[in-house]
Amino acid sequence: MNFEPVETRDSRGAASGEDGHEPAASAATRRGLIRAAVGGAIAAAGITRLAADPAAAKRPTAEDNCDPSDPDCEQFGAGRPGGRTGCILLGASQRGNAPGRFGAGPAMPSPVLAGLPWYEAFDSPVKRGAAYWIGTGSNWGMVRAAHAVCLRPPSLPDPAEAWSFYDQGYSDACVGFATARMLSLFNTRFYNGTEMYNAARQYDRWPGANYVGTSVDGGMEAAMVVGGWRVANLKTSGPFKSDGIRSWAWLETSDDILLALGTKEPFIRLLNSWGPYYPREVRLPLAALNRLVREGGNFVSAVDRPTGSL
After folding, report:
1. Which residue has the higher pLDDT, 34 or 219?
2. What's the pLDDT at 100?
3. In this structure, what are the phi and psi dihedrals at residue 31, rounded to the nearest 5 degrees?
């Protein structure tokens, strides 16, 4: 059955600016952006137009990632006008806050929540054959945001309806939508991403609510403590703790991520939450994954499956 996206607009709309963008922040390096969420500098995280490095200040073009002479290579549009920014807080992860130990439970394969420095080139995936790709060229342009996505294990199908259903609009709720997508892959149900986002902000590492976005560990905590809000026939109900996870763990290396996903493919499969304004699924090469891990991307996965999926 087809469902329409629910509550894709953020009730705090003014926090993201009139055009859906966060105001630009000044910082010295990309690494500084990724660490900016630590301590009290929460408002600075994920709000940037930093150059990746001095040599990469040129804006990426289709030719950087897609050979125009290749008839099987074409560039996907850049999504909604204005793009989206600033929906996740990246920082030095507090590894001690995970309730589980990776590899200790029966959850593999498991979806992975990824908090990534989102480069300009990622806005416009390129198509090779039947698949869309990001991170294939050497020039990714500037980091324009920090963004959360769900990585899909090849063995867990993603229904076609999920593509249009999971659309965060111009809200800051990417963590909530990525967490909801994870629960969908586990339980074959649809979940309310906005409710998951609000819950993640209650369980992330920062007090109060005077900041924009949240963190992927907040999303995992919400899935563990409260479960998920089901959506059926355009109505939200819950939360259902039985739909959640039992524990989760940080993934420190690319090898950990591949093990959690249960894959030996030379790429990972990424599910975004921008609805039909972005391809249903994109692929990221392992070399690009290694780079994002080195640059401080945050990756977490369930250690134990939801009770409802056992």
Report:
1. 219
2. 62
3. -60, -40
